[in-house]
Recover the amino acids of this structure.
C-alpha cells in the first residue's frame, strides 16, 4: 500500500503537492481501510489480547534449563566456560599488575602516557586525578574498575575493529551490520544486562561481556566510517601504483582512518565506563559497586566519593584519547623509552619504600559534609518553601497535571491510533522504511503483552523530553550567545554527563519523593548536558556568511536568532532531540529503582528475582521502544554519536 | 575462494583454541579480585538492606582482624545471590529471608550450597503505619478499617486510591495479591529500592503525614520513625502457598545463613567462624543504626560493636 | 612510423545496469546521451574511442568536464574497467591481463599523476615518493635513496621530512609527480594534474613537465580541460566531447582546421600566430627567392616569422635544412592571423567530405597516423603530424611564446 507514490495530478490543490501532505493523505487512506477491519476483528482501546503471545513459560523453561545445565552441558563447558575463564584470567592479570606497580607507579605511568600523547597540562591533570582517587579512599576500587575497563575496552576495540573492518571492506556486510549497530547504539544499557546474566551468572565475566556488547558498536561504526570515508583520490592513487589489497589496507586505508579509529576508541572507553557502573547491578565490583552499595543505605556522600573517581577517570581518558585523535603534539619518538623508564623507576622506588598500597591515613572523608549539605537541601527545599512551594509539591503537581494526563491519554487511545501516530511521525521525518520499522517495533511491544507499562514508560519519556528540550534549548541558546557563560558551563556539563546515572537517583528521591516524578527529574538532569551542548554547537556553527549578511541588513540579535540561526541549525536541533530522547529513555528505565514503575521496574524485578521471563520481555519491550523513539526522531542521514 | 578457505581455517582455529584445552566449568570460577596479593580471601554477599550490611561488617571485621583473612563484599540481589553462592563467586550469605524454591534446587538437589545455621535474628514482614498516626486513629491497625482511611493515604502517584508503598523489587512480597484478595482500595507503589523507600518514609515522617508501607523487622528505621504494624488475617502454615490467592499475613522467619559447599568443607577457620556467627536482633540493630543514622562507615561501626561485645564474639572464634 | 606505446581501439565505457548491451547494439550505440539514459538508465562516458600513443610523444586528451576524458585515462590501466574495445600496451592486451600482470603494469609501466594529488597525509614527502617502490617490495635504504634523487629532480630538496599538509598545492603536485617518476615508468599518465593550482604555479608546473619531457623523452598521456595547456604541451591532441573524440591532430591542425563547429568555437580565441607554423602561411618559392634572404625553420611559429619579416621588411625563406620549402610574406602571415587561410582550408575540407554531418563518430574513427583511414587533418596539412615533437622543434621557444 505504502509504496504507491505516483505523482499527483496537477489539478490537486497546492497543499497536496507538498510531500508531507501527500504522505499523510496516503496514511489516512491506509488507515481508512485498515482501521475498520482491525476494529471489527478486535476491540479498540488497549492492545487486544488475541494479538499477544505469552512468552513466560518458554522463557522460564530456558532459564531453568540454563541453570540446570550450566555446569554440565558441553556448550557451557567448552564455549562459554572458556570465554568466562579468559575474562576472569585477564581481568585478574591486569588487576594484579596494577596492584604490583603500586599507586606511585600507576600514577606515574598514567601521567607519562598523558604527557607523551597530550602534553604537560593533561599529564598534571592525570596525576592529580589518580591522586584524588587515592585521597578519596577509593584506590583499590578504582584499580578494580580500571582492570575491568582495560579488559573490556581491549575486547570491545578488537571486536569492534573487526566488525568495522568487515563493514568497511564489504558492502554486503555493511548493509547487514549498519542497522544492527545503529540500533544497538540507542538501547538503554539496562536492557543488555539480563541476557548476559542468564548465561554467565552474576559476576565479573557477565559484567565484562555486557560492557563489550555495549561498547563495541561505536568502535565498529567508526571503523567502518573511517575506512569508507577514506579519500577516494588517495585510494585511487595507491591502486594506480599497483598495490595489492593488503598493501592498500595497511598502508593507506587504516592510516587514513586514524582519526575515526581514535574517536572510536574514545567513544568505546566512555561507554565502557558508563556501563562498568551500571554493571555493578550484576556484580562488576569496583567503583560502581561502591556507588550501588552507598545508595542502598541512602548515603549520597559515599556515593559521591565513589562517583568522583569515575568522573575523573572519564574526563582523563576522554581528554587523552581525544588529544591522540587530533594528532596530539608532535613529539619525537625517542621520548617514549625515557618516559617508560621514568615510570618504571617511580614504580620501583614506590615498591622499595613499601608504598604499593595507598596509605590509609591519607584519605579524605567527603561523605559527611556532602551528606550534611544534602540533608540541609532536602530539609529546606522539600516542602513549605514560601510562594513557590516545595519540591515535593512541584513533583506532586507535575505528576497530577502532566504525567497522569499524558499516561492516561496514551492508554486511552485505541491501539491502532497509537500505531498510526507513530507511523505518521516517523514517515514525516524519515522515509517509509523508518516508518515501517517504528510501527513494527511498537506493534512488537503489544505482541509481547506489555502494551500498558510501555505506554506508561512512554508517557514519562515524553514528559521528560519536553522539559529537557525547553531547558536545554534555552541554556544552549544562552551558551551560544555568550562565550563566558559557555566557559562556565563546560566543566559543569562534563561532570553531569560522566557522573554515573545512579548517583542522581537518591537526591531526586529526597527532593521529589518516590514515584515517576523523580525518575523524570533524573532523566532531565542526565540528558540536559548533551542537548545543551549540541544546541550550542549547532548555533555556533551556523554559516558566518549568513549571519554577516543578516547583520548587514540590520537584523536585531533576536531576529538573527529566529530567522537565521535557528532555521540553519535545524539539523543540530533535531539531533539534540534525538539524543535527548535516547538519553532520557535510558534513565527513565533506571527510574524503576525509584518508583517509576512500568518497564524499568519489570527489568529491575527480573534481575532482582531472577525472573528472566518478566525481565527479558520487559527488556525486549525497551529495545522496541528505543527503536521506535529513535526512528520517530531520526532525521534522514544520521550523524549522531552517542554522548557526542 | 581463497578467502573462503581462510575463513574456514580461522573458524577451525578458533574452535580448537576454545575447546582444545578441555572443559572449563565457569560455575567454579572465583572473582578475579579475590585472593589478590596472596591473602586468603572470603567473599561475602551483602544484600541491600542495612541489617545485612551490619552482619557483614562485623563478620568482615573479625575475619580480617582476628583471623587474618581478606574479605571482599559483593552487593547482589537475593535470588541472584543464591546463584552466585552456588557458583562459588560468593562464599556465604549471612541473612536469608526464606527462598524455598532456591533452597530446594541448590541445597537439596545440586548440593552446591550448605546450610549455615540460624543467624539468631527472627525476621518479620508486615504492613506498617507511623505510630503518630496510629495513636490518633487506633482502628487503622486492623486491615478491615484500611479502606476507611484510603483517602488519607493518597498521593499523586497512587492516583485516586490509597498508597501502599512497597520497597525493592527483590524483596519477598505478596502485596499486590493481598490488596486484591482483601478487596482494599489501595494501589501498590513500588519505591524500586529500599533506599528510595527509606528516604520517602523519612520525608513523610518529617511532616507527620500518614502513610502505609510494606516494612520488616528487625530494621533500624523503627528507632527513627516509630511504626505500628497493621494486623492482617493471621498467618497459617501454607496459606501463602499459591501466590495469587494469598490473603494472610507474612510469617515470622528465623533468618538463615548459607555457605557454598566447597567453602564450607575447605574454608577452614573462616567457614567454622561463619557457621558459629550468631547474634540477637538488638545487636544487629545497634550496628545498623550506627551505619545508617550516625553515618559511620560499616568498618567503624563494626569496630565499635566488637570493642563492646567481646564475650559475644569470642564464642564464635573458639 | 614510430611504435605505439598504447593502442586503443573501439573503447567503450558505459556506466549503469547491464552496461554490456550498449556497445553491442548498434542502435543503442548511436543514441544521444539523454536518449540513452531514458531508454536504458545507462551513461556512456567513453564511446567508441580509438587512438595510438606513440613512444616519446606527449599525447593530450582534452575536453570539457563530463566529456569522458578522465574515465578514458583510467581505462588505460583499468582503474576503471572498460566495457568494450581493446587496449594494448606495447602490443600486449591490457584487458586480458590477470590481476598479477595488471599489478605489474601499474607498478612498472604506467604511473599516474592525479588532479587532487592523492598523497598519503600521514607520510613524509620522502616516504610518499618512495611509496610506489615500497609497494614493489624495494628495500628501505634503496627506495629512500632513489626517492631522494627524484625529490631533487622535481625541485623539492630540503622538504623531504615535511608532511603533505605542510606543503603548498604546487609543491604537493611536485610530490605526486616525483612519486610517479620514482618507479621509472614507461608512460606517465596525467589526470588534469594542474587544474587545482593557481595560474602562476600552473605555468611553472607546465614548464616543469616540458623540461622533464625534454630531458627524459618519456611518453606522456596528459588529460586537461585547458586548451592553452593542451596546445602548449601536446605533440598531438585528442579533443573529446560527450565521450567521443571529435578531432585528433597536432595543435596546428586543431587550430588551423577545426573538424566541426564545436571545435571551431573551442579554438576561436586561440592566438593563432603562436600555434600555427609557417608551413601554413608559406607559398611556393619562386626561383630567385629560394636562394637568398633571411630564413626560418618550417617548425617556426607564424609569430616568429612575423618578427623576422618585420625586421627584414621583405619575404622570408622557410628552410628545411639547406632546402628551401617555401616563402612567407606579409600577406600569407596576415591571412593566418586573420584566420582567412584556415577558413579557406576548412571550406575545402567541408567540400571534400561530409565531416560536419558525420559528426564526431567519423572523427573518432579517424586514426591519425595509421595511414589507412581518411584523416581529414592530414588532408589539409599534407605532412606527418609529428613535427612539433621532433628535433626541429625548439621546445624552449614553444614554451616561451604561448
Amino acid at each position: 500500500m505504502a509504496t504507491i507514490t505516483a505523482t499527483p495530478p496537477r489539478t490537486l490543490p497546492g497543499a497536496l503537492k507538498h510531500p508531507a501532505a501527500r504522505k499523510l493523505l496516503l496514511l489516512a487512506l491506509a488507515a481508512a481501510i485498515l482501521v475498520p477491519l482491525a476494529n471489527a476483528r478486535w476491540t479498540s482501546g488497549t492492545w487486544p489480547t488475541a494479538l499477544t503471545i505469552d512468552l513466560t513459560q518458554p522463557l522460564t523453561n530456558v532459564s531453568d534449563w540454563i541453570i540446570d545445565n550450566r555446569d554440565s552441558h558441553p556448550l557451557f563447558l567448552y564455549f562459554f566456560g572458556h570465554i568466562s575463564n579468559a575474562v576472569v584470567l585477564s581481568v585478574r592479570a591486569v588487576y594484579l599488575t596494577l596492584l604490583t606497580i603500586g599507586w606511585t607507579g600507576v600514577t606515574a605511568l598514567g601521567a607519562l602516557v598523558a604527557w607523551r600523547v597530550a602534553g604537560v597540562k593533561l599529564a598534571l591533570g592525570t596525576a592529580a586525578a589518580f591522586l584524588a582517587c587515592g585521597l578519596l579512599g577509593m584506590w583499590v576500587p578504582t584499580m578494580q574498575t580500571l582492570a575491568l575497563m582495560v579488559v573490556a575496552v581491549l575486547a570491545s576495540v578488537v571486536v569492534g575493529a573487526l566488525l568495522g573492518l568487515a563493514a568497511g571492506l564489504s558492502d554486503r556486510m555493511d548493509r547487514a551490520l549498519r542497522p544492527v549497530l545503529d540500533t544497538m547504539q540507542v538501547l538503554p544499557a539496562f536492557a543488555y544486562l539480563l541476557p548476559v546474566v542468564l548465561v554467565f551468572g552474576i559476576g565479573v565475566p557477565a559484567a565484562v561481556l555486557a560492557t563489550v556488547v555495549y561498547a563495541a558498536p561505536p568502535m565498529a561504526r567508526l571503523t567502518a566510517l573511517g575506512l569508507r570515508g577514506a579519500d577516494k583520490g588517495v585510494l585511487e592513487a595507491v591502486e594506480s601504483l599497483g598495490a595489492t589489497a593488503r598493501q592498500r589496507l595497511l598502508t593507506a586505508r587504516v592510516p587514513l582512518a586514524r582519526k575515526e579509529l581514535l574517536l572510536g576508541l574514545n567513544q568505546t572507553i566512555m561507554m565502557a565506563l558508563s556501563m562498568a557502573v551500571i554493571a555493578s547491578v550484576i556484580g562488576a565490583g569496583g567503583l560502581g559497586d561502591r556507588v550501588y552499595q552507598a545508595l542502598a543505605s541512602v548515603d549520597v556522600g559515599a556515593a559521591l566519593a565513589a562517583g568522583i573517581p569515575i568522573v575523573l577517570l572519564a574526563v582523563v581518558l576522554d581528554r587523552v584519547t581525544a588529544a591522540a585523535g587530533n594528532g596530539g603534539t608532535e613529539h619525537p619518538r625517542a621520548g617514549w623509552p625515557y618516559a617508560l623508564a621514568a615510570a618504571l623507576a617511580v614504580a620501583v622506588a614506590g615498591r622499595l619504600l613499601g608504598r604499593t598500597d595507598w596509605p590509609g591515613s591519607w584519605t579524605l572523608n567527603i561523605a559527611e559534609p556532602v551528606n550534611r549539605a544534602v540533608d540541609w537541601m532536602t530539609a529546606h527545599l522539600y516542602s513549605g518553601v514560601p510562594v513557590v512551594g516545595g519540591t515535593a509539591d512541584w513533583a506532586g503537581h507535575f505528576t497530577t497535571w502532566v504525567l497522569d494526563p499524558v499516561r492516561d491519554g496514551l492508554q486511552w487511545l485505541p491501539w491502532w491510533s497509537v500505531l498510526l501516530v507513530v507511523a505518521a511521525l516517523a514517515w514525516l521525518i524519515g522515509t517509509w522504511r523508518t516508518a515501517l520499522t517504528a510501527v513494527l517495533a511498537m506493534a512488537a511491544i503489544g505482541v509481547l503483552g506489555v502494551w500498558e507499562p510501555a505506554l506508561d514508560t512512554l508517557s514519562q519519556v515524553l514528559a521528560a523530553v519536553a522539559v529537557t528540550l525547553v531547558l536545554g534549548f534555552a541554556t544552549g541558546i544562552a551558551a551560544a550567545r555568550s562565550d563566558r557563560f559557555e566557559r562556565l558551563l563546560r566543566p559543569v556539563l562534563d561532570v553531569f554527563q560522566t557522573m554515573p546515572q545512579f548517583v542522581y537517583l537518591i537526591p531526586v528521591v529526597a527532593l521529589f519523593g518516590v514515584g515517576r516524578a523523580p525518575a523524570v527529574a533524573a532523566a532531565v538532569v542526565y540528558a540536559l548536558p548533551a542537548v545543551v551542548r549540541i544546541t550550542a554547537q549547532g548555533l555556533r556553527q551556523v554559516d558566518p556568511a549568513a549571519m554577516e549578511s543578516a547583520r548587514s541588513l540590520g537584523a536585531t540579535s533576536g531576529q538573527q536568532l529566529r530567522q537565521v540561526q535557528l532555521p540553519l541549525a535545524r539539523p543540530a536541533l533535531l539531533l539534540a532531540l534525538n539524543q535527548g530522547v535516547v538519553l532520557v529513555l535510558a534513565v527513565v528505565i533506571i527510574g524503576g529503582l525509584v518508583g517509576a514503575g512500568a518497564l524499568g521496574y519489570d527489568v529491575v524485578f527480573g534481575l532482582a528475582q531472577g525472573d528472566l521471563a518478566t525481565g527479558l520481555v520487559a527488556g525486549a519491550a525497551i529495545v522496541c521502544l528505543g527503536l521506535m523513539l529513535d526512528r520517530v526522531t531520526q532525521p534522514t542521514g544520521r550523524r549522531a554519536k552517542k554522548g557526542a | 575462494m581463497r578467502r573462503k578457505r581462510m575463513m574456514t581455517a580461522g573458524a577451525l582455529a578458533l574452535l580448537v583454541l576454545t575447546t582444545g584445552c578441555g572443559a572449563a566449568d565457569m560455575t567454579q570460577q572465583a572473582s578475579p579480585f579475590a585472593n589478590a596479593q596472596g591473602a586468603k580471601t572470603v567473599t561475602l554477599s551483602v544484600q541491600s538492606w542495612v541489617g545485612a550490611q551490619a552482619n557483614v561488617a562485623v563478620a568482615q571485621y573479625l575475619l580480617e582482624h582476628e583471623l587474618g583473612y581478606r574479605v571482599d563484599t559483593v552487593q547482589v540481589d537475593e535470588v541472584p545471590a543464591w546463584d552466585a553462592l552456588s557458583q562459588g563467586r560468593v562464599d556465604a550469605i549471612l541473612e536469608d529471608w526464606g527462598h524455598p524454591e532456591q533452597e530446594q534446587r541448590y541445597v537439596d538437589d545440586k548440593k552446591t550450597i550448605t546450610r549455615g545455621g540460624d543467624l539468631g535474628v527472627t525476621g518479620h514482614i508486615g504492613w506498617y503505619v507511623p505510630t503518630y498516626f496510629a495513636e490518633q486513629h487506633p482502628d487503622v491497625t486492623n486491615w478491615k478499617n484500611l479502606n476507611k482511611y484510603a483517602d488519607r493515604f493518597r498521593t499523586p502517584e497512587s492516583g485516586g486510591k490509597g498508597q501502599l508503598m512497597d520497597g525493592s523489587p527483590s524483596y519477598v512480597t505478596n502485596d499486590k495479591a493481598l490488596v486484591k484478595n482483601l478487596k482494599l482500595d489501595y494501589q501498590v507503589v513500588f519505591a524500586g529500592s529500599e533506599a528510595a523507600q527509606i528516604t520517602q518514609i523519612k520525608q513523610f515522617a518529617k511532616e507527620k503525614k500518614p502513610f502505609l508501607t510494606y516494612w520488616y523487622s528487625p530494621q533500624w528505621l523503627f528507632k527513627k520513625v516509630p511504626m505500628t504494624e497493621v494486623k492482617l488475617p493471621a498467618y497459617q502454615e501454607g496459606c501463602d502457598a499459591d501466590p495469587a490467592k494469598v490473603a494472610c499475613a507474612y510469617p515470622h522467619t528465623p533468618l538463615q545463613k548459607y555457605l557454598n559447599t566447597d567453602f564450607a568443607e575447605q574454608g577452614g577457620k573462616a567457614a567454622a567462624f561463619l557457621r558459629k556467627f550468631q547474634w540477637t536482633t538488638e545487636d544487629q540493630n545497634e550496628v545498623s543504626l550506627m551505619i545508617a543514622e550516625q553515618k559511620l562507615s560499616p568498618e567503624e561501626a563494626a569496630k565499635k560493636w566488637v570493642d563492646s561485645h567481646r564475650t559475644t564474639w569470642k564464642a564464635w572464634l573458639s | 612510423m614510430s611504435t605505439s606505446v598504447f593502442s586503443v581501439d573501439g573503447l567503450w565505457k558505459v556506466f549503469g545496469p547491464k552496461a554490456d548491451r550498449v556497445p553491442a547494439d548498434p542502435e543503442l550505440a548511436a543514441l544521444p546521451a539523454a536518449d540513452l539514459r531514458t531508454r536504458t538508465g545507462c551513461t556512456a562516458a567513453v564511446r567508441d574511442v580509438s587512438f595510438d600513443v606513440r613512444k616519446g610523444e606527449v599525447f593530450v586528451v582534452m575536453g570539457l568536464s563530463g566529456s569522458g576524458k578522465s574515465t578514458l585515462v583510467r581505462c588505460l590501466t583499468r582503474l576503471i574497467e572498460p566495457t568494450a574495445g581493446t587496449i594494448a600496451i606495447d602490443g600486449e592486451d591490457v584487458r586480458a591481463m590477470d590481476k598479477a600482470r595488471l599489478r605489474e603494469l601499474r607498478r612498472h609501466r604506467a604511473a599516474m599523476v592525479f588532479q587532487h594529488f592523492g598523497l598519503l597525509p600521514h607520510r613524509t614527502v620522502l616516504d610518499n615518493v618512495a611509496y610506489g617502490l615500497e609497494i614493489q617490495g624495494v628495500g628501505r635504504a634503496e627506495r629512500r635513496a632513489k626517492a631522494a634523487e627524484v625529490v631533487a629532480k622535481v625541485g623539492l630538496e630540503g622538504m623531504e621530512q615535511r608532511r603533505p599538509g605542510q606543503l603548498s598545492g604546487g609543491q604537493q603536485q611536485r610530490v605526486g609527480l616525483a612519486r610517479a617518476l620514482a618507479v621509472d615508468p614507461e608512460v606517465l599518465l596525467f589526470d588534469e594534474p594542474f587544474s587545482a593550482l593557481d595560474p602562476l604555479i600552473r605555468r611553472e608546473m607546465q614548464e616543469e613537465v616540458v623540461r622533464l619531457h625534454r630531458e627524459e623523452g618519456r611518453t606522456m598521456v596528459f588529460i586537461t580541460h585547458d586548451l592553452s595547456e593542451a596546445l602548449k604541451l601536446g605533440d598531438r591532441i585528442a579533443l573529446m566531447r560527450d565521450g567521443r573524440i571529435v578531432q585528433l591532430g597536432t595543435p596546428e591542425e586543431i587550430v588551423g582546421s577545426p573538424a566541426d563547429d564545436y571545435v571551431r568555437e573551442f579554438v576561436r580565441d586561440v592566438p593563432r600566430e603562436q600555434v600555427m607554423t609557417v608551413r601554413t602561411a608559406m607559398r611556393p618559392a619562386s626561383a630567385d627567392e629560394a636562394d637568398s634572404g633571411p630564413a626560418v625553420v618550417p617548425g617556426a611559429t607564424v609569430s616568429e616569422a612575423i618578427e623576422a619579416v618585420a625586421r627584414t621588411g621583405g619575404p622570408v625563406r622557410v628552410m628545411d635544412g639547406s632546402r628551401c620549402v617555401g616563402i612567407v610574406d606579409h600577406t600569407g602571415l596576415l591571412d593566418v592571423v586573420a584566420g582567412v587561410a584556415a577558413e579557406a582550408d576548412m571550406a575545402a575540407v567541408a567540400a571534400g567530405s561530409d565531416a560536419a554531418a558525420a559528426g564526431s563518430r567519423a572523427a573518432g574513427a579517424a586514426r591519425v597516423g595509421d595511414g589507412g583511414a581518411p584523416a581529414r587533418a592530414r588532408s589539409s596539412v599534407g605532412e606527418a603530424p609529428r613535427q612539433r615533437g621532433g628535433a626541429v622543434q625548439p621546445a624552449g621557444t614553444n614554451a616561451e611564446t604561448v
Summary: Confidence is low (pLDDT under 50) at residues 1-12, 637-644 of chain A. Residues 479 and 489 of chain A are 8 Å apart (CA to CA). Residues 79-356 of chain A form a domain with the MetI-like fold fold (CATH 1.10.3720.10).
